[in-house]
Amino acid sequence: MKEGIHPEYAKTTITCACGSVIETQSTRKDIRVEICSQCHPFITGKQKIMDTAGRVERFKKKYAAVEAKKK
To answer: Most buried of 10, 29, 36, 71, CB within 10 angstroms?
Structure first.
């Protein structure tokens, strides 16, 4: 490997908005994130469907006839 072309690789701290702190190594120092593996809704099982502008209701209404035909 060539000398002097690689960035410095040092210990850093990753801080999540939920308060979780992870220590690792990176080329950046003190990284802040909004979601980590301990608070992500998909991983924790607390996932919610966000209904923006009635899209979920429109979807259910659109495919209600298809479900009725199946039965």
So the answer is: 36
